[in-house]
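Record 1 of the preview.
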Amino acid sequence: MAKDIVTRFAPSPTGFLHIGGARTALFNWLFAKHAGGKMLLRIEDTDRARSTQEAVDAIMDGLSWLGLDWDGEPISQFSRLDRHKEAVEAMLANGSAYRCYSTPEEVDAMREKARAEGRPPRYDGTWRNKDASEAPDGVDPVIRLKAPEDGETVVDDMVQGRVVIPNKDLDDFVLMRSDGTPTYMLAVVVDDHDMAVTHIIRGVDHLTNAARQTLIFKALGWDVPAMAHIPLIHGPDGAKLSKRHGATGAEAYRAMGYLPQAMRNYLARLGWSHGDEEIMALSDMIKWFGMDAVGQSAARFDFKKLENLNGHYMRATEDAELLDHWKVYLAHADGGKDVLAWMADAKNAATALTALPGLKERAKTLVELTESASYLWRPRPLDTDEKADKILNDDAKAILGDLHAVLEGVSGWAAEPLETAVKAYAEQKELKLGKVAQPLRAALTGRGTSPGIYDVLIALGRDESLARIHDQAAKS
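->
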């Protein structure tokens, strides 16, 4: 039944949340939400040399930023070592696993011999049927699966279809190392069973593990979960997404000013589709999601498409919510903490909120929005860029002097009366509107380009606007 469906996201804490991992987490989350089930989080931290708490925190932070919550407490794979050993003991007892006393050097020699004879390089089963009495002294054994030697193992994959692997191609792989630590292959199976996982959704690069893990499930007498191996994400050039293509971690996209709702929408469409829908509300994604619409081909990451989608979400997001996202971005951006400190003042926060409608219409990312908004917190007298300097010549200063008097007389500091006053002044002086608006923009923002001029006047308010106009008009 739907309520019994359980998925899991199981990252290794050796770095940040990779964008491919974020997409895997999203698919698991959507599949579980669609079915009214649960998504669990398991931290696969058995590699103690490479696993760090910093990475665990970064993964959870990335998931939280994307709005992907998990059910229950995160589970540490390393903490379940005793349970993994218990499972191996059960396999030794039922004859589906055995102790292997071959040294690493002997196993290497077996592989070299097989290679020389044109066979796949693998362990040759030397200890498969030997009696324990033949065990050499002073050698700690590994535990190997006694894999079936004939027949085939079938994985009915929800994305890749029916995958058949001849059992002769699956050697007696190691379940537990000689130091008593489990291999990834064993730990994953035991954990998935104990967590009651019904559907394993992961990257297609794990498809080769699926047959081996199926053998372990069967050796322990457990049901094999349904499996879905989703396509990888490639860069624009068709190669597997890597650092040379640009950012690969979720935290980097936050720092580049992307909104979590845009990232969710974009990642959902990488390998999955619903008709021609490009822009999807989260509720629709949950309603529509299914593995039947996940393709087998690798998905290509298109940075321009993501930027355009983010621009849509910038414009569509309510101002108060966008302000919250903006603050999250600033907390992780270079120089952002200074802007956050400015916004901590309630009056300044209200100014930023007032400015947002004009700002978000012209920005595709929160980086662009912050740059456009910088006029709000830069101190007087404003520094001016090269374009503004060229605009603010003697003629422009004379116009600003006139505009100061005109705007000072405007009653009701709102878009309509301000626009009426500026246009009336331009007509009176027989000037094109641009000849008036450009100096006004440069005086108010210190830049040659900015949000709409009336949006800027309203955001700054009467006193600050008039003071900035006066600064430039009086400048020698």
